[in-house]
Amino acid sequence: MTSPRKDWNVLSHGSAILPSHGREHNLSLVLQTLADQGALSRADLARATGLTRVTVSELVAELLHRSHVIETGTQEGKRPGKPSTLVDLNRPGLRIIGVDLSGIIPFRAAIMDLDGVILQSFSSQGRGATGQDAADQLLELLDTALAQCQVPVLGIGIGSPGVVTDKGIVLSAEKFGWRDYDLCSAVEQATGISTHVLNDADCAILAEHTFGQGSGHMILLRLGRGVGCGVITHNTLVRGAGFAAGELGHVRLHAQDTAECGCGNIGCLETCISLPAIWKALSEGQPKDQLDQQV
User: Any idea which architecture 213-294 has in CATH?
Assistant: First the structure.
């Protein structure tokens, strides 16, 4: 039994480390290996991860207790003796929820299975909210999605505009007026579910890398509320020292540009080629061919 994810591109996720350096790392390593390769025996998991068989057995026992993995049957025909029991992600019994905050349209959320297949989607009722109103709108959307989910939710993933740390803190997102806002903790406290928050362009490039036509070295340019860019090199997401790698929207393109940006600077790239800027220019009568040259 194998998983459809066997042929997907996967990010580098490291290798086994000492137990004192983090049991959660090794639990994640086992889960990632099953996600990449499909159902495996404990012995095959040990070989794939570099962990000892005893450690793998302990980790699998914990993951079985958490209902994150299930036993799926026996492995026949590989060698003499008792057939090995296969374990795999609990694909039928768990769901994940993804949220996109980047679009011009209202916030969007989706219930997905562990292979990323969208089962149901939702949109928020309002648009243009900022500050705490934007956060409240997000939580209402999550309440709606969670109410429709009939099986346990393993985690929530959120793609947000702006500079986002590895802890899910939005350092700056002028579209929402968020600064040093711990969005991850706010969602986890409201839902009780493990949450991951990432820059929207980084989310987009991870999706393309995994499910699309991605490669080990790639750049993805995203136009939406602003202008963002995701970067992957050597199958590793590049985030930068200040988590601002790829923030092209606030680069000044021409010295003569004077349009004021929401970040407080003037002449930023997104003042002329973000979707709101393009729509504004068209509504003010700027010729389409001139706009094409500008973009």
Answer: 2-Layer Sandwich (3.30)
Do 4-89 and 213-294 agree at the fold level?
no
Contact at 8 Å (CB) between 52 and 20?
A: no
Dump the DSSP string for 96-147.
EEEEE--SSSSPEEEEE-TT--EEEEEE-S--S--HHHHHHHHHHHHHHHHH
- Label residue 46 exposed, middle or buried (CB < 10 Å: 0-12, 13-18, 19+): buried
- Transcribe 60-76 into DSSP letters: HHHHHHHTSEEEEEEE-
SS3 content of the chain, % helix, strand, coil (to 5): 35, 25, 40
Average pLDDT, the chain: 85
Predicted confidence (pLDDT) per residue in 144-169, tens digit: 999 999 999 999 999 998 899 999 99
Give phi and psi for 45, each to the nearest 5: -60, -40
Domain range 95-206, CATH architecture: 2-Layer Sandwich (3.30)
| Adjacency order of strands within the sheet including 163-164 | 163-164, 169-173, 178-182
Which residues are registered as beta bridge partners of 105?
Answer: none
Share of the chain above pLDDT 90, in %: 52
Q: What pLDDT digit, counting tens, does each position of 54-99 carry?
A: 999 999 999 999 999 999 988 876 566 678 899 999 999 999 999 9
